[in-house]
Every structure is written in structure tokens, then in C-alpha cells.
Design goal:
The complex is a heterodimer. Chain A is an all-alpha fold. Chain A has helices at 2-33, 70-83, 85-90, 92-125, 136-169, 171-175, 179-201, 207-217, 226-241, 249-261, 272-280, 298-302. Chain A is elongated, with a radius of gyration of 26 Å. Chain B is mainly alpha-helical. Chain B is 43% helix and 5% strand. In chain B, the strands form two sheets. In chain B, strands 2-1-3-4 form a four-stranded parallel β-sheet, with helices on both faces. In chain B, strands 6-5-7-8 form a four-stranded parallel β-sheet, with helices on both faces. Chain B is globular. The chains are: A mainly alpha, B mainly alpha. Chains A and B meet through helix 3, helix 6, helix 7, helix 10 and helix 11 of A and helix 2, helix 3, helix 8, helix 9 and helix 10 of B.
Chain lengths: 314, 534
């Protein structure tokens, strides 16, 4: 029974979890991306404008070539993604825990990549990745994998516990923490905590993890020890839940920055943006206030004048 | 004292949810606090003051249960439309994202001058009102909210008190977007505030009198939010020409309705009424620099404001389209907006995706043009004529929301002697709102001005004092430069009148162009005077 359950979790359930995660995340991202292009709502500084700053600072800015510096944009994104710059600058107390949690995630994502890479190397190279290997790169891969996994789990657990402590003890944060917020944190704590226990007790060199990855690639699921089975179950639940939770902010953040704060694309006559907006102007807006006419198109309403005296003088 | 108010409390029966007192507020050095005036009995009888003891909207509580139900239903219908592509293409994407992905870290809180200066009252947190919106939306429009209720945070009861208090709350935020600039995720609680104002205006017909009835509606009716008709505008221009002659000893003919001019200059019409020296200074500068420019006497062509920016997409679009049409009629090459932050942002930036097709006439703010006048050498300036301490206010709309940071500084550096211009703390894109933003400067109903002056402008008062801390002695004349009409309104009502900076410290306020003209070699008499009433 135990083996069957472990097989079901490690095999079919994990495949299902990955499929749900990918499909639901894609659906969410496509839904956001296909929302109408909004009115400009820039927030400065805009990273890709670089040291030159806003185009609006120049006389007849429309005559100047648009300044887009990919390097500056990438540098700002790197600071924000890798260091959580804004949290560091404006909420240091939270950064002390949020940063370790995020760093833990990044390291675990890297660890998954390393485990998968090791698995592929074992599959195609016929080589065992371990500390006992006589091949240097296999030994190095093993060491890097162990460090990434172990440090990631410790940092993640520390960060999540710290955030949980803050949400319980900080009166202001408590008001903004519904039960689901705590549930999210408990799920992450369990994920990092059980992962840490599984590493320490069952798989200190991640040999089993690599073997498990091989089994998934070859569609020959294996059974796992109890801790690892529990960890895989939690990870599967996490993957399925993630796209439906606010934890998907890692994907939403792209749109917040690139599509809203940094969307300084000017309207060019005859361009695709103008055509797009032209289409929106035919939408029927349904607002019901007295100064609007529900059901009229946006264009009709935007060019109407509800305050204009009527011809009969009323 | 901090008044603890949870989100659920918004619906509860209480005479005043957060009874704000002056003792709650942060201190302004040297200012003797005066207790808030009690609400007049006839106001109290008629209007709802149950949020914080103040009213910006003069809302009358529903008389019957049916009327309350109708109010609740209307609110919900409006909320649904905020998330509809057809009804809200203009801001649906940012609204949806800010609704779904706030991680409730409260980082935004400390960025908000109103929250901080109020003694950190819960109801003024930038995310308090948007969290209410999220909770209500979850409860009524999401599966998890309907099924799991309070477990997912959908725990706010919707009754007339919730709706009225929420409506009032939307007019306790200046939409300066300082909170958004600090959000690690990118959530924009200021936008959420504007979206709520929009819901109230576009669905329930609720908006502050100063921005709607005597704001954008009067603008559309008479051609100006001030009520100034084209005929009155022409009279004002004549008066300004006389004033210029008196000030500089020669008459300038201000060009009106000049077909095919390079520039149509549009001022906030409040300048003509309250600070005519500002359009006068523009006229002197543009004339001296040999620029081909004109004003328009066409209805909507001489008024730069666009109050829809703060609360209503349709009112915004109507005004923007009409302004651009007035420019098209004259056949000018470009529009330049005078010293008004929201007017600049409205027509130059936001309207970029409204004025399509043949309405897409080039538009820009005045600050780069003023910098060009200084750097081109077209006018000779003598910086020693501005030999007094000057600090610069960064209007949120032009600076944080458009990134216009350096032109005004380059101008100041060129027209002042070394050491006279000093930045205030947090200068630039992280500057604080003057307290008059999002319409506050023109909202004067009931006891709202008392709240505005005491709370919304308090941070600016502290910033100005900090900038001038080494020269507060009233024997030293000082100049607070605010290149924005609304910011000047806030300076007049709050800094000068309420906090008494003029009398106590000899600080006066004005725009950038006045300083420029004051430094012109060709202008003999000082254009700026500490004796005249600005």
C-alpha cells in the first residue's frame, strides 16, 4: 500500500501537477497579456530610459529618437529580482526575511535545474554523478547541487518562519493577513522544512533525487522513501495551487513593470497602437451615471458634452 | 493617538469611525495647533461625517432600506464594470493586477505623507481602501470569496456606511503615487483609489463638487473650470497687458488666436484669476525670446486643466478632445502647457492614447521650453537679481509621473547666484505632494479644507521648513518655487494662510517664470516683491 501510494504521488500525481501548473500559469499570463492596452500611467524613473531620463524633458520630444537602453532595463530588473531592491530600500524589516525566502526559492529552482541536468547527464552519458565519481565535472556538479539544495532549503525555511513571526507579532501586518495568508506560509514552511528533513535523513547527496528525475524523464516512476514522498506530495500541491494564488506575483510583476510603470510607448500616427486604440473606441461602455449614456460607444461618449446648454436654452 | 480601525469596522455603526484630532497629528515645528472646529449642527444633521469627522462629498445617508439596497446594488454593478473590457479598457489591466497580486507587505504605508502625518491612522493607509475594494470584489465576484468568505479575506459587509465611508476615503488620497513607487511588486494603490473614484462618479454620480459640478462640468459648459467665458478671458488678457506695461515699462501685445503659430500656450485658467503675474511672465519671456506663440480665446482653448484626470475617464476624454480641437482650429504646430502639473500630464501623457487620428497634435510641457530659453541665450539673465534663498517644489504630476526633473533645476541654476537654490529633503521623483493634489486644492465644501490643510499639506510644510532651516529669520526673504497652479493653490491656502509661513518666516510662493523675469537684465524693476500680495 505504502509503495503504491508513493508511486502514485511520485509518478502520476507529479505529472498532473506539472501539467496543471504549466497550463494554469500560461492561461493566467495569456489572460493578463490579452487585456486591452490601457491609458498611459507611467511612473519614473523608467529603467530603459537610462541616465538620459524622461523623453518629456526635451523640447519637441516627439522629434527625438526614442531612447531604449536594454542594459539599463536589465540592470534594474536584476536588482529588483535578485536583490528585492524596493523591499530593501523601503521595508528593511521585511526584507530581512523576505530576501532569504526569495533567495531560497531561487536556489531551489537552481537546484532543480542541477538535479535535472545531472539526470540527463546520467541518462545520456552513462555516468553516475556523485562525490565518489572519478570524473571532475561530475564531482563538481554533485558539490554544487548539494550546496544549492541545502542552502536553498535553509534560507527558505528561515525566511518563511521569519515572515510568519512578523505576521503574528506585527499588529499592522496582522490586519492585512487573512487565514489564507497564513496557510500560504505554512505550506511554504512545510515545503522547505520537510525538504530539509528529507535531505538530512534520506538523501544527503541528492542521489535519490537525481534518480527520481531520471525516472520522470523515462516515464518509469519509482517509489520514494517516506519523507521524500511527502515532499513530492507537497511540491505537487504547491505547483497546482501556485497559479491560483497571489504567489503568482512573480509573473504578474513583469506586467506591472513593463506594461504599466515603464510603458512609455508614444502613439505614432498609423501605427499598431493607434489602430488598437481605434478599436477600443467602439466598445460600448455601460456606466450609468447621469452625465453618461449607458450603451453608447466610447467614442460617442468621449465627444459628447453633457453640460452644453440645449438649443431651447434649458 | 492612533485609532485602531480594521477593515471589517468600515461597516459598523459608529458616529465617527476614526475621530481625528489635531493631537493625533505629527508636529510642525513652531506651529501652534488649533483644535478642529466642531461640525456645524445643520451640516451634521444633513450629511455623513462618519468616516473621520470630515466631509468632502456632502453625502446624505439613504432615508429608507430600499434606498440603501439600491445604493448597494449600484455600487456592485459599478464594481463589476471596473473589471469589464468594454466599460473599462482604459485601466482594466492595471486594476486587475493591483487587485489580484498585492502581497500585503504594507511597504507602501510609510511612503504616504497623509498616513504618516495623520499619526499613522489605519484608515489612511494607501492599501486600506484598496484592500476594502479587494475584499468586496472577492466576496461578491469570485468563487473562492463566495465559498470561503473570511478565510480568503472576503469579510467586509456591504451597507451604506461601507459605501459612503469608502467614497469619502477616496478623497483622503492625493493620488501622488508615491506609494506605487515603493511597492516591490508594482501594485498601484493610488490607481486603485482613482478607480474607486471613477466607480463612484461613472456609476453612482458621486464626486466631489469642486472637481465635477463646479469643475469638469463647468469647464464643459463655459469653457473654463473657473467659469471664465471667452469674453471674460479677453478682458483678462487686456488687464494683463496693462499690468505688464506697469511692471516693465513697455506694452506687449499678447497674441490671441494667431493662426498657424508655432505654439499654442495653454495655462491653467486659475492663473488668470489668482496669479495673473504668471501668464504675464510667460508673455514677457516668450516675447523677449522671439517665439512664435499664441493664446486661444476659443472655448476650451484657454483652459488647461482637466479634472477628469482625478476621477472620471469620460470627463477626462471630453476635456482633452475639446482642448486639442481648439488647437486644431487655430492650426498651430504644437501645444505647450503652462505651469500646471496635472494639466501637463493629462494632455501630454495620458491623452496620448485618447487623441488618435487627426487629433494627435504634438503636445509638451513648458519646463523644457523654459530651459531652452535660458540655454539658448535668447534672453540675458542676471542671476544676482535673485539673491535670496529659493527652494523648489517638484509637482508629482510633472516629476514622478512624467520624469521631468532636470529642466527646472537647470533653469534655477542659471538664474540664481550660487548657494541660493537649495533642494528640499526627498527632492525629485520621491518628493511629497503639496497637499492639493487630485483636486484637493479646488475642493472647498463643508469642513474638508480644514482636513486638507491640517493633514494633506502637513508633510510639505515640514519639508519647506527643513529646506529653509538655516534662514528662517523673517528678515531674510525666501521664495518657495512651485511651478504648478494647483500646488500654488495649496501653498496659498495651507503654507501661507494656515501655517502662517508668510507672516512668520517671510516666505512667499510663486512659479518659475516669475523668477526668470525677475532675473532678466532688460527688466529694471523687480518682478517679485515681498511687499505685494501674491
Amino acid at each position: 500500500m505504502g509503495d503504491t501510494l508513493s508511486w502514485l504521488i511520485a509518478g502520476p500525481f507529479m505529472y498532473l501537477a506539472v501539467i496543471v501548473f504549466v497550463a494554469a500559469t500560461l492561461k493566467k499570463v495569456i489572460t493578463i497579456a490579452s487585456m486591452p492596452r490601457h491609458l498611459r500611467w507611467d511612473l519614473y524613473p523608467i529603467a530603459h530610459e537610462g541616465p538620459a531620463g524622461s523623453a518629456f524633458q526635451k523640447v519637441e520630444f516627439w522629434k527625438q529618437p526614442r531612447h531604449i537602453s536594454l542594459a539599463h532595463e536589465l540592470a534594474e530588473m536584476a536588482e529588483e529580482i535578485l536583490l528585492l531592491k524596493r523591499t530593501f530600500l523601503y521595508n528593511r524589516k521585511m526584507w530581512n526575511f523576505s530576501y532569504p525566502m526569495h533567495a531560497g526559492f531561487y536556489l531551489i529552482i537552481g537546484w532543480i535545474g542541477l538535479v535535472k541536468f545531472g539526470a540527463i547527464m546520467e541518462l545520456i552519458g552513462g555516468l553516475k554523478i556523485s562525490g565518489a565519481s572519478t570524473v571532475f565535472w561530475a564531482q563538481a556538479l554533485n558539490v554544487v547541487t548539494v550546496i544549492a539544495g541545502a542552502v536553498g532549503l535553509v534560507l527558505g525555511l528561515y525566511g518563511c518562519l521569519g515572515l510568519l513571526w512578523m505576521r503574528y507579532t506585527d499588529e499592522d501586518l496582522k490586519d492585512y493577513s487573512s487565514p489564507i495568508t497564513f496557510l500560504n506560509l505554512y505550506l511554504l514552511i512545510a515545503l522547505f522544512g520537510i525538504g530539509l528533513a528529507a535531505w538530512l535523513i534520506e538523501d544527503p547527496s541528492f542521489v535519490l533525487a537525481r534518480g527520481y528525475a531520471v525516472s520522470l524523464y523515462t516515464f518509469k516512476p519509482i517509489t520514494l522513501p517516506p519523507m521524500m514522498t511527502l515532499e513530492v506530495l507537497l511540491f505537487g500541491i504547491f505547483l497546482i495551487y501556485l497559479p491560483f494564488s497571489r504567489m503568482l506575483h512573480f509573473a504578474a510583476k513583469y506586467f506591472f513593470y513593463h506594461n504599466i510603470m515603464w510603458d512609455d510607448e508614444p502613439l505614432v500616427a498609423g501605427g499598431s497602437l493607434e489602430k488598437m486604440i481605434g478599436g477600443y473606441l467602439h466598445y460600448k461602455a455601460q456606466w450609468a451615471a447621469p452625465h453618461l449614456k449607458s450603451g453608447d460607444s466610447w467614442l460617442e461618449q468621449a465627444t459628447a458634452n453633457p453640460a452644453k446648454p440645449k438649443e431651447d436654452g434649458k | 493617538m492612533k485609532h485602531k480601525v480594521s477593515h471589517k469596522d468600515i461597516a459598523k455603526q459608529a458616529e465617527i469611525l476614526c475621530p481625528l484630532a489635531v493631537t493625533d497629528l505629527d508636529k510642525v515645528p513652531g506651529y501652534e495647533e488649533k483644535p478642529f472646529k466642531p461640525v456645524k449642527p445643520d451640516w451634521k444633521e444633513k450629511y455623513d461625517f462618519s468616516l473621520d469627522g470630515f466631509s468632502a462629498l456632502a453625502l446624505t445617508p439613504p432615508a429608507t432600506k430600499e434606498a440603501e439596497e439600491e445604493l448597494v446594488n449600484k455600487f456592485l454593478r459599478g464594481l463589476e464594470k471596473l473589471f469589464s473590457q468594454e466599460s473599462n479598457w482604459t485601466f482594466m489591466q492595471p486594476t486587475s493586477l493591483s487587485t489580484d497580486y498585492c502581497v500585503r507587505c504594507n511597504t507602501c504605508n510609510e511612503a504616504c505623507p497623509i498616513y504618516v502625518e495623520s499619526g499613522r491612522q489605519d484608515i489612511y493607509r494607501p492599501n486600506y481602501r484598496s484592500e476594502l475594494l479587494r475584499k468586496i470584489y472577492q466576496r461578491y465576484f469570485t468563487t473562492e470569496g463566495r465559498l470561503l468568505g473570511g478565510f480568503v479575506g472576503a469579510d467586509v459587509e456591504l451597507n451604506w456606511r461601507t459605501i459612503y465611508r469608502l467614497a469619502e476615503l477616496t478623497y483622503r488620497c492625493t493620488i501622488c503615487r508615491r506609494c506605487a513607487a515603493t511597492c516591490p511588486v508594482g501594485v498601484d494603490n493610488a490607481l486603485m483609489n482613482r478607480e474607486l473614484r471613477k466607480l463612484f462618479s461613472q456609476e453612482l454620480g458621486i464626486a466631489a463638487e469642486g472637481v465635477h459640478k463646479s469643475g469638469s462640468m463647468r469647464h464643459l459648459q463655459t469653457g473654463s473650470s473657473t467659469g471664465m467665458t471667452p469674453a471674460a478671458f479677453l478682458d483678462t488678457i487686456e488687464f494683463i497687458e496693462d499690468d505688464i506695461e506697469e511692471r516693465i515699462g513697455r506694452r506687449i501685445k499678447i497674441p490671441i488666436d494667431k493662426k498657424g503659430a508655432d505654439i499654442l500656450l495653454i495655462h491653467n485658467a486659475g492663473e488668470y484669476v489668482s496669479w495673473p503675474e504668471n501668464p504675464a511672465a510667460f508673455a514677457i519671456l516668450l516675447d523677449a525670446a522671439g517665439i512664435d506663440w499664441t493664446l486661444s480665446s476659443e472655448s476650451m482653448g484657454y483652459e488647461g486643466v482637466n479634472y477628469g484626470t482625478w476621477y472620471d475617464d469620460f470627463q477626462f476624454a471630453r476635456v482633452a478632445v475639446a482642448q486639442v480641437q481648439a488647437a486644431k482650429k487655430l492650426g498651430v504646430r504644437r501645444i505647450v502647457v503652462g505651469e500646471c502639473g496635472h494639466a501637463t500630464k493629462a494632455i501630454v501623457e495620458i491623452a496620448d492614447r485618447v487623441c488618435v487620428g487627426d487629433l494627435a497634435i504634438p503636445r509638451e510641457g513648458c519646463l523644457p521650453l523654459l530651459e531652452q530659453i535660458v540655454t539658448s541665450g535668447a534672453i540675458k539673465f542676471d542671476p544676482s537679481k535673485n539673491n535670496f534663498p529659493i527652494t523648489l517644489h517638484d509637482p508629482c504630476n510633472m516629476v514622478r509621473l512624467m520624469g521631468i526633473v532636470s529642466p527646472q533645476r537647470n533653469v534655477l541654476k542659471a538664474i540664481t547666484p550660487p548657494g541660493c537654490f537649495r533642494e528640499m529633503p526627498n527632492a525629485g521623483v520621491m518628493n511629497y505632494c503639496c497637499g492639493g493634489g487630485s483636486g484637493f486644492a479646488v475642493m472647498n465644501s463643508l469642513n474638508f479644507p480644514e482636513w486638507r490643510n491640517n493633514v494633506a499639506s502637513r508633510m510639505k510644510a515640514n519639508q519647506v521648513l527643513e529646506a529653509f532651516k538655516d534662514c528662517l529669520d523673517p528678515s531674510i526673504p525666501k521664495y518657495y518655487c512651485a511651478p504648478c497652479s494647483n500646488c500654488k493653490g495649496a501653498a496659498r491656502d495651507s503654507l501661507m494662510e494656515h501655517y502662517g509661513f508668510r507672516d512668520k518666516y517671510n516666505i512667499i510662493y510663486g512659479g518659475l517664470v516669475e523668477l526668470m523675469v525677475n532675473a532678466m537684465v532688460d527688466v529694471e524693476k523687480p518682478f517679485i516683491s515681498w511687499e505685494d500680495e501674491f
